[in-house]
Sequence to fold (221 residues):
Amino acid sequence: MSGHPEVSRRTLLTGGAAAAALAGVGVWAASGPTPSFAHGDRGPGNGRHVLVGYDSAYGSTGDVAVAIADEFGAAGWRSEVRRVGEGIDLDRYQAAVLGAPVHRDAWKEEATAFLSGHADRLRQIPVALFLTSMSYGIDPDRARQDRAKRAILEQVARQAPSLTPIAMRPFGGFLDYGRMAPINGLVYRGFAGNDTSGDFRDFDAIRAWGADLAGQLRRKR
Ligand SMILES: Cc1cc2nc3c(=O)[nH]c(=O)nc-3n(C[C@H](O)[C@H](O)[C@H](O)COP(=O)(O)O)c2cc1C
Fold:
């Protein structure tokens, strides 16, 4: 890290130190503007059903879920975008793609709880996992980020012992201080600096991953 002092600082801060400090003082409990969370169905009704389930604090991971669901829909699947915690009945689906933002160097807690709570069903169907992260988007050391974020996803998979995801993929995330409660935005900015906000979601890569998954699963039918 010493070779990239500027990047190291930003990476460290967006990678969890700021968030951990904030969590320590409890400011994340304050609510901000109500984000809109994606939800909806795509594709023909006669295909197999795939769940694109996600968690999110500020909504942007839902856009990633929608882009993936669109690819499944285009490939003939019935794809359903649902936020975890919406009372999802996993028995309705023959495959699941699950994603969540990184919070404090871990998959967001509610998504992890969903995965471990539904471990029995998830072991019976193909499952793919993804995450969104600011440090993955910002840090130019792709190899380091890839290792770190894949380790987080591997840790997630271990929450459902014997679950073997067919794919695991980190993506850059999105952070807009304007979507946070003022106190959260202020404190996060204070720790991390202005340059840690932005949209680092690579929708070409996200769509390509979704299309590839849909293709893989079609061949398994
Ligand atoms: C409380 C909090 C903690 C975060 N912790 C991390 C982190 O440890 N590492 C990281 O790369 N990004 C971190 N982020 C950035 C988010 O992962 C990223 O902005 C994500 O795309 C947000 O998704 P959402 O809009 O669906 O909530 C954090 C964001 C928040 C709000």
